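Re: that backbone. Tokens:
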């Protein structure tokens, strides 16, 4: 069965466990021999079936079954560094903020880029704007 986004977590766990078991059986390993090789108990291995094992145990099982390199396909290394994505966005955001500030400052009644208003005019404008 193909694992899809529509599957529940429980269904994905069941499918992964069945795949691991198929690989174990194909290698001719019994569960007893596998847990012995891993140095874990049977109850610990049984938790794998429920998805309640640690990531460390899961990785150990993958390693023992020669499936560890499959994790490269599961979580591939990024082809672009996160900083290459963040820098352009940060610069763009910074430029937008500067543009917004310059637009806002020119529209406020309290400041003028060309001439200074008197305190009396500023207070009059302030009173008009108060609610």
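Recovered sequence:
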């Amino acid at each position: 069965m193909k694992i899809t986004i529509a599957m529940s977590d429980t269904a994905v766990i069941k499918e992964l466990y069945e795949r691991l078991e198929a690989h174990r059986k194909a290698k001719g390993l019994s569960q007893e021999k596998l847990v012995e090789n891993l140095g874990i108990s049977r109850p610990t291995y049984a938790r794998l079936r429920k998805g309640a094992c640690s990531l460390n145990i899961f990785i150990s099982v993958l390693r023992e079954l020669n499936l560890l390199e499959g994790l490269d396909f599961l979580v591939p290394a990024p082809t672009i560094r996160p900083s290459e994505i963040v820098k352009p966005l940060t610069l763009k955001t910074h430029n937008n903020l500067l543009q917004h500030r310059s637009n806002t400052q020119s529209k406020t009644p309290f400041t003028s880029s060309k001439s200074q208003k008197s305190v009396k005019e500023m207070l009059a404008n302030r009173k008009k704007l108060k609610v």
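The chain has seven helices and no strands. The helical segments are 9-26, 31-38, 42-50, 55-64, 71-74, 82-107, 119-129.
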